[in-house]
Each structure stands twice: as structure tokens, then as C-alpha cells.
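We treat protein structure as text, and this decision shapes the records that our systems exchange. Below, we set out a record of this kind in full and without editing:

***
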Amino acid sequence: MTLAEMKPGQTGHIHAIQTGKASVIRLMVLGLVEEVPLRIENIAIGGDPIEVSLFGSSISIRKQDAQMFEVILDGVNG
């Protein structure tokens, strides 16, 4: 599952990242790196952008960039 497929209220952590885009690397500098716990706070009408909270702060991410982050939901095995 990607970050873009998560629903508001769901929690998980980043498992893998496709780092080919400069915008994705910038998000990694902001803290979106592997094993970081996160929560989807809100999704705008139309699905873009996505509000994600991590480390006590929230950031908005374009859906196009959120698709580059593979996540594992909390409470889901495998």
C-alpha cells in the first residue's frame, strides 16, 4: 500500500521509498524516511493534497509524491 492509498485516521510506517524525484527527496529531508511512524490526518476534496502527521507536526503532500512511499499499516502483518 502507498501513502496515497491510506485513509484519514490510519496509522503506519514507511517501508520503502522510490527516490527518483527531487520532490520526494525534499520530503525525505523533512522527515519522511523508512520506519517513521505516521498518521493520515486529512485528505482534501478530490484527494489532493494529503495531510500527514509525524514527529508532532503535520505536512501536506501531493498525491503524486505520496504514491512514491510504500507503507505498512499498524496492526497489519506481512
